[in-house]
Amino acid sequence: VSTQSTWGQSYPTNQTIIMPGSDDILAQLPVIDLTNFLSNPDVNDADYKKNCELVAQLLHQYGILLVKDPRVPEQDNENFLDMMEQYFEQPDNDKSKDIRKEIFYEVGITPEHTERARSHCDKTKSFADSEKPLTICPPELDPKCRFFWRIGDRPKQTEFTQLNAADVVPEAFKDRWTNVMNGWGGKLIASVQVVARMAALGMGLDDDTFTKLLHQGPHLLAPTGSDFYKYGKVDTVLASYHYDLNFMTIHGRSRFPGLYIWTRDGKKALVKVPQQCLLLQAGKQFEWLTGGWVLAGFHEVVVTPQTVEAIEKAKAAGRSLWRISSTLFSHVASDNTLQPLGKFSNEEALKKYPPTKAGTQVEQEIQMIKSGK
């Protein structure tokens, strides 16, 4: 069986799409154009089915996708980055008003040197030198900041109120913050929902298998801010090697490179998101629902020589030296149950991924991070 994409390349659905030993993995990945899916959502259409199979296969083999969504203009990403640069450029005293430490930074700003990744030292010690992350073992506190802003409706009643806290609107941006954040975050979550439908169909599941679990999930627009006025030296680790605990993470283009991802077979690749495109990576909840058929993707953000070049260009142009990640975490609703679904449900998978409420899974991951496990 071959998968014929709308961009005119054919890929076998049961074989590796990218040849082993490829130097630039992401450059060879096909871009999934969502235009035809959105304009002709006919599940019986042959091209429609083939594109869904390709989405599923890419997630299985690489844990990542590059997509083009006609509903997501690049200018919206630029407007979002502009505002977040202005926000992070503020004095620390101003930003400190937006800290919500009492609810473990679930909304508002997380200061630098607060987040710490779980340790994956046992996993990475067997990697070839060329594939190893730069993160030291055990990981240190990350120098990046982050702002969490919830996207979409939350349930009126939930067992996990902490994961569904009220948003924080920075005082200096109150006239535009909500519109910009909700506008950009709403477009990103809409892209996730389409990809989730395509993935479900490509895996032989009902098209709403994943999206109904995401309904009223604690989705978070979660831009990071890395201060290159202080942390601009080559090989500085801004975000330690880790996977995301949520369903799927989606990124718009950043103005500074430095994001590395690892594929299922442990290959390391520097992310270069093409113009007008979005990058998606599977998280732990996706892994749970597929019994490990799709694995949560590992990634790391570091200062590379290419980052330094971008820093110098920004300096010369008088632009901000804050690196903003245009990131959204999509989540299964906290009170819904994570367990291998459909054909992915078997004795072995259920033993490794037992039925667990999504809110409980998130809390367990947070506790393991805090304990350094």
Would you kindly provide a written description of the structure presented here, covering whatever features stand out?
This protein is of the alpha+beta class and 373 residues long. Helix content is 32%, strand content 18%. The protein is built from twelve helices and 18 strands. The strands form four sheets. Strands 3, 4, 5, 6, 7, 8, 10, 13, 15 and 16 form a ten-stranded mixed sheet that branches. The chain has a four-stranded antiparallel sheet with strand order 9-14-11-12, with no helix packed on it. The protein is globular, with a radius of gyration of 20 Å. The N and C termini lie far apart (43 Å).
The total of beta strands comes to: 18
Rounded average pLDDT: 89
Count of helical segments? 12
Order of helices and strands: EEHEHHEHHEHEHHEEEEEEEHEHEEEHEH
User: What structural category do the secondary elements indicate?
Assistant: alpha+beta
Q: What overall form do the CA principal axes indicate?
A: globular
Helix content: 25-40%
Evaluate the radius of gyration: 20 Å
The poorly predicted ranges are 1-23
Largest sheet: 10 strands, mixed
How far is the first residue's CA from the last residue's CA? 43 Å
Beta-strand portion reads 15-25%
